[in-house]
Structure prediction request, 558 residues.
Amino acid sequence: MAGTNSERELLTEGPAIILAYPQLGENIGMVARAMANFGLSELRLVNPRDGWPNEKARSAASRADHVIDRAKLYGTLEEAIADLNFVYATTARDRDGYKPVRSPIIAARELRQRFKSGQGVGIIFGRERTGLTNEEVALADEIVTFPVNPAFASLNLAQAVLLMSYEWMKTGMASEEETSFQAIEQRPATKEQLNGLFQHLEEALDARNYFRPADKKPKLVENLRAVLTRPSFTESEIQVLRGVISSLDRFTRENPRGSGAPVDSSKGRGRKVHGGGDD
Amino acid sequence: MAGTNSERELLTEGPAIILAYPQLGENIGMVARAMANFGLSELRLVNPRDGWPNEKARSAASRADHVIDRAKLYGTLEEAIADLNFVYATTARDRDGYKPVRSPIIAARELRQRFKSGQGVGIIFGRERTGLTNEEVALADEIVTFPVNPAFASLNLAQAVLLMSYEWMKTGMASEEETSFQAIEQRPATKEQLNGLFQHLEEALDARNYFRPADKKPKLVENLRAVLTRPSFTESEIQVLRGVISSLDRFTRENPRGSGAPVDSSKGRGRKVHGGGDD
Prediction:
């Protein structure tokens, strides 16, 4: 799941991620990596305990060097957010306060809208163990909190940054269905192709007295067609199935394809045999 | 941001998380922790390289013991998904195939719907370094892939599990606005309270000849009221502001509150003084 590709577009815009008094260099590195995955690159560090620059951070960043190299250092949280217009504080605890509390998806939309209109925006994350103090939360405009298992709330710093970065990226996408690659588009088979399949199979089965007793044949055919219609086979799938039927119809276990045994040329009624590898 | 609280509801239902041939015990542990955060608990391990049980996994799981203890071991991926009805394969690479490719949010909704109707559902994650082979992807019904920075796609195993678990949890919530706690609800001030504020402030300013020249007064009052109307102050905010005005109005820098200097009783016109700590 790893890989940096410099030929592809490197996304580098969005809210600043502000780490207030982070402790371990490794965690700062993992934050940088989480940000880079979702196109964020502005990392602000408030008085990191283990100093800055920090080689453990660079190593844990897993080549998110553009984030590490541009990280800015501040002495206080106030300084770190001074130039921003709108800031979220992240917290897992009920603050018993009056600030609006948002879910990550709503917060990401608010950030995207303000970012688009030219505002400086950011998200503050607290210390690994203790998070943000009430005084630090008070510096933010609103609170964002993550929906977690009430009995097991144990998101670490980089995971919290990852989730907000992910929600940020999603707000920039055309739709929530969007994916970076798609299945190869497959045209559904035409009704003529589907009918060819039915006839092929029914003829092969009929030749083996599959449809017995005779008065049940219409119902048996109906059931068979229903089974084969439901999956909405594509053109190439129909080809595969025709190849399978031909193979079952024309060869036996005793005389498989390529065995040199004579093939009953009356079978398959001169139809082109599809698929089946080297057939 | 950590903390397990056994009094709260422990969520333990949802899709199985299937790790195909995971390598490091630590990663399995971090996967368990990610799952537990979002209420998932069914972990299936296909032939983990470092064996099972694994103490490094337990340590990295950060007390998600209910996930680690219940993890099931399988020899092959086929066995690990044999009892499931619908399975996603996660991949970051375009598979050049015909399987439907879904975004995490769409996949999570599909899983939730099938889970509700009683189907066994799961999500397969591949090896840390190389992900899933094409043959392994072929065992799944559909593909899920994450929206990432095209030039920096470097989600690790636990992060990928975290994002899918998070999306799963969100599909179980009443709305995307839902948060586990809310701001204390604040009633907007009544118009009478707001008018009291205006009168208080305007009287105090008038006494200081703030509104000059006299013919500009109506416009100055209008502007002031506009400024104070826009924030939709709450009742308690109005109280705070009234306290501020009273304090500025009744005391001076030379004779602050509590200095013992006589207070000009003509100021404040007998109005109750609000807020301002021990005032």
In short: Chain B touches chain A through 70 residues (CB under 8 Å).
